[in-house]
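ok trying this again, last paste got cut off
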Amino acid sequence: MPEHARAVVFANGVLDHPQAAVALVQPGDLLVAADGGAYICLQLGLSPHILIGDFDSLEADVVADLAARGAQVIRHPERKDYTDLELALRHVQSLGIAEVIVIAALGARWDQTLANLLLPAADDLAGMTIRLVDGPQEVMLLRAGAELLLRGRPGDTVSLIPLGGDAREIITQGLEYSLRGETLYFGATRGLSNVLLGEEGHVQLGNGLLLCVVIHQGEGQ
């Protein structure tokens, strides 16, 4: 069994909801900063257990200070095949941790944002449950043959977006507009802006990949 049951990974994106981010962190979480994500950690009054990346976005004195505080520093060359966030997720996976929350994965650069949103779909990370959280919004991936439990409040927005092709045999429970073994087509918008009826909802997927976005009402300040 891994020492930590869950990891919180801090990316080097935009942090719009600091109070909500702090509230996500639980005692016992492994805190991992992906390069400049260390600044997000420090902004929240946290110190990462692991610092990973090529450190092109991080001052050398910050790296040294975090190392002095006890952080494990894992340095990669600047010329590499993976982003710092993907390196962080792969390292967490190597530790046997399957549940991950990613904070500050979104930002001004569309290429980085899109790549981060698609990272949970990587085959090499298939054994992990990854949630990208930005204040009231959270993004999760549902794979073929699996079921996703959605938690929130009545009125929360739920959007289901197919990735890489059509998503077939979708069954939902607890959503205003139900699906009963139907298909959501890649590139179409039918799955957007559904509504959670209670505190829980369920989505099952028979075939394909489905990006699930939940927007919680009245949260994330």
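PB: full thing came through this time. The chain has a mean pLDDT of 94.
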